[in-house]
């Protein structure tokens, strides 16, 4: 999990690292919500982090998932600023 975060911070286009970080604690995004986010990112031709920002505005994402995504983005931005 730590390796996924390091990969993500080094390269936000590393979709595998983003998915791993989202699926594991402390975020624990459900697989169905993760699939929706991935679909949104692919359709809009965005990297996963930008796709997550777009997903927070999508009606396809339920409120609980939106909160988890926002928590991830906050953690990501904080870690990136420290990196």
Structure explained in plain terms:
The protein is mainly α and 83 residues long. It has one domain (2-82): PCRA, domain 4 (Orthogonal Bundle). Helix content is 71%, strand content 0%. It contains five helices and no strands. Helix 1 packs across helix 2, helix 3 crosses helix 4 (48-55) and helix 4 packs across helix 5 (63-82). The chain is globular, with a radius of gyration of 11 Å. 24% of the residues are buried. The model has no long low-confidence stretch (mean pLDDT 96).
Q: Low-confidence parts lasting 5 or more residues at pLDDT below 50?
A: none
In total, the number of strands is 0
Helical content stands at: over 70%
Order of helices and strands: HHHHH
In the residues, how many domains can be counted? 1
Give the mean pLDDT.
Answer: 96
Main sheet summary: none
> What overall form do the CA principal axes indicate?
globular
Helix and strand content put the structural class at mainly alpha
Any idea what the CATH architecture is?
Answer: Orthogonal Bundle
Percentage of β-strand residues: under 5%
CATH homologous superfamily caption: PCRA, domain 4
Tell me the name of the CATH class: Mainly Alpha
Round the Cα radius of gyration to an integer and report it.
11 Å
In DSSP terms, counting alpha (H) and pi (I) runs of 4 or more, how many helices?
Answer: 5
Distance between the termini: 17 Å
| CATH T-level fold name | PCRA, domain 4
């Amino acid at each position: 999990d730590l390796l996924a975060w390091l990969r993500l911070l080094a390269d936000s286009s590393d979709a595998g690292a983003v998915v791993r970080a989202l699926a594991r604690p402390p975020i624990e995004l459900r697989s169905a919500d993760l699939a929706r986010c991935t679909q949104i990112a692919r359709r809009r031709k965005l990297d996963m982090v930008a796709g997550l920002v777009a997903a927070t505005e999508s009606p396809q994402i339920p409120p609980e998932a939106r909160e988890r995504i926002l928590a991830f983005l906050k953690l990501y931005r904080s870690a990136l600023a420290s990196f």
